[in-house]
Write a structure and sequence with these properties.
Helix content of chain B: under 10%
Structural class of chain A: mainly beta
Number of helices of chain B: 0
Helix content of chain A: under 10%
Shape of chain A: globular
Radius of gyration of chain B: 13 Å
Largest sheet of chain B: 7 strands, mixed
Order of helices and strands of chain A: EEEEEEEEEEE
Number of helices of chain A: 0
Distance between the termini of chain A: 41 Å
Largest sheet of chain A: 6 strands, mixed
Number of strands of chain A: 11
Largest interface: A-B, 24 and 23 residues
Structural class of chain B: mainly beta
Strand content of chain B: over 45%
Distance between the termini of chain B: 37 Å
Order of helices and strands of chain B: EEEEEEEEEEE
Oligomer: heterodimer
Shape of chain B: globular
């Protein structure tokens, strides 16, 4: 069964720092990997989607990389801002009868002014 | 923009009540999902559907049922609500390889 782990579980950084969030998965036979942001009490917003054939995706200050063979993805946030404070979740899509996502537990990020 | 709408944001129900959580999507997506999210347990899949009248159990289907009579609507039903079903419920929909979430429904069972 696919397992997805995110480290660290929580992170607090001063504004302006560059930071890296980590995601690892046990089964490399994934269809794609997605990074989400969740604000307190809200639903999930998709940030970046990386197909299994891709190595990275970029959106603004966000860059996500994927190394399928090692079962790892990283989300890099450049020049962090207080508005980046949220929980970040990664999820892998495996191709089976259900086309289901398996989520990591998330990293709770606090960016201090 | 994709829109996944959950009809109720906050509900308080009594133990034993029948509860309906409704979800509607406007993008003609084949797949629809119901998750619950609890502190320390993350997101757990309850049920999903990849076509009208089709449903599949997720990881934690016990105590829940679902209904998908129309493509755009996926309902989660708690036949007899219990206090351990107090949680945030998230509906999602998507095509084959991605997913879009609603804003979530906070359910408290007292």
């Amino acid at each position: 069964k696919q397992e997805v782990t995110q480290i660290p579980a929580a992170l607090s950084v001063p504004e302006g720092e560059n930071l890296v969030l980590n995601c690892s998965f046990t089964d490399s036979a994934i269809y794609n990997l997605q990074w989400f942001r969740q604000d307190p009490g809200k639903g999930l917003t998709s940030l970046l989607l990386i197909q299994s054939s891709q190595r990275e995706q970029t959106s603004g200050r966000l860059n996500a990389s994927l190394d399928k063979s090692s079962g790892r993805s990283t989300l890099y946030i450049a020049a962090s801002q207080p508005g980046d404070s949220a929980t970040y979740l990664c999820a892998v899509f495996i191709r089976n009868a259900g086309n289901m996502l398996t989520f990591g537990g998330g990293t709770r990020l606090m960016v201090k002014p | 923009d994709v829109k996944v709408t959950q009809s109720s944001r906050y509900l308080v129900k009594r133990t034993g009540e029948k509860v309906f959580l409704e979800c509607v999507q406007d993008m003609d997506h084949e797949n629809m999902f119901w998750y619950r999210q609890d502190p320390g347990l993350g997101l757990r899949l309850i049920y999903f559907s990849y076509d009208v009248k089709m449903k599949e159990k997720g990881d934690i289907p016990e105590g829940y049922s679902v209904s998908r009579e129309k493509k755009e609507r996926f309902s989660l039903i708690l036949e007899s609500a219990s206090t351990n079903q107090t949680s945030m419920y998230l509906c999602a929909s998507g095509p084959v390889n991605t997913i879009y979430f609603g804003e979530g429904s906070w359910l408290t069972v007292v």
